[in-house]
């Protein structure tokens, strides 16, 4: 009987993470529609291809070395002297019937990794080389973010054990790291042709299909139920905790996630009346509350999400004006600035909360963690893209950008014959002269 109960518990846990991972695949369907809709007609398929390739390359590289980085880095830099069990030849990294946990946990983290690459992908559409993009996506998804996850989520992670870091929904180690990695790349990649005038003022480069982008954002949000479910530790017996050891429930996460969705939309609507920023605001609302989705009172979540939804378009406009970056989908603001807000506000409204076996939550711990995540993303993103730019591997040639990446790079057409010219003539391309 005891053996039967143990086996049932194991199966319950395994099935739970199996379905969390399946739902996380929906995130990437959303990113695909979101980014293709945000592109102009001449770059639609190139943007989609890039997003698909990011997913495809991150998954195997996360198997070959990403999981090892997670297990080897809780103290800071990876410890190459330690046998972690995360090497691709390890017994646990295969169909070992004695281990029902490693595969499903690895798959969930691999989908987190692919999410970071997709966050980065949207910011750089319409002018990045595929070769350079793949190198950067692998670096972000299979090395950089997972080191941050090791610091923040591993049971021995230094942010946990030393500073009482708490970030249930990965506003820091996923969203901030990916966004500020993208920010570093954007500084070297430069804006799309026609984005800025000689006097430094910006032009709007309109997406060719706003409905597709808005629909993609809604689909992406559906996938976040799998993402957030994967942030819970479930042992198969009905016991739910966070990775930090404090109790939570699916009910708590459901209350707060849905409240964040509604609040973020209202914040985006109040600031812009733009459906794109309303749905981006929904995501911003989640990231602004992600650190405390496991324990916030729902009305507090709603208020913080309204602030996040309003902050997203303001942050995007500030980044564009101040740094002259061309973030085509506002990813740095939505994921980075709103994620930073979420991490820091938790340290204010939830200071002193018991954090399992770790130090109680506190503002200084959240601040140290936020700075660490920002730098962890920005430094490799800027440094490696700078080197790629030096060697001509970062940006497509000017004539290819003007003509359109689909025509030059993709052996397929996005729309029936004649439809592209109709779309351009109706305002689908803001830079028709190109």
Radius of gyration: 21 Å
What is the terminal separation in angstroms? 72 Å
- The secondary-structure element order is HHHHHHHEEHHHHHHHH
Main sheet strand line-up: 1-2
Amount of helix: 55-70%
**What oligomeric state best describes the polypeptide chains here?**
single chain
Tally the helices: 15
CATH names the topology as Ammonium transporter fold
Query: What is the CATH domain class?
Result: Mainly Alpha
What does this structure look like?
- With 434 residues, the chain is mainly alpha-helical.
- It has one domain: Orthogonal Bundle (Ammonium transporter fold), CATH 1.10.3430.10.
- 66% of the residues lie in helices and 1% in strands.
- It contains 15 helices and two strands.
- The protein has helices spanning 2-38, 44-72, 102-123, 130-153, 158-163, 171-189, 210-229, 250-272, 275-289, 298-323, 331-349, 363-390, 398-403, 405-409, 419-425, and strands at 232-234, 240-242.
- The chain has a two-stranded antiparallel sheet with strand order 1-2.
- A hairpin with a 5-residue loop joins strand 1 and strand 2 (240-242).
Compose a concise summary of this entry.
The protein contains 15 helices and two strands.
How do the helices and strands line up, and which of them pair or pack?
Layout: H1 2-38, H2 44-72, H3 102-123, H4 130-153, H5 158-163, H6 171-189, H7 210-229, E1 232-234, E2 240-242, H8 250-272, H9 275-289, H10 298-323, H11 331-349, H12 363-390, H13 398-403, H14 405-409, H15 419-425
Antiparallel strand pairs: 1-2
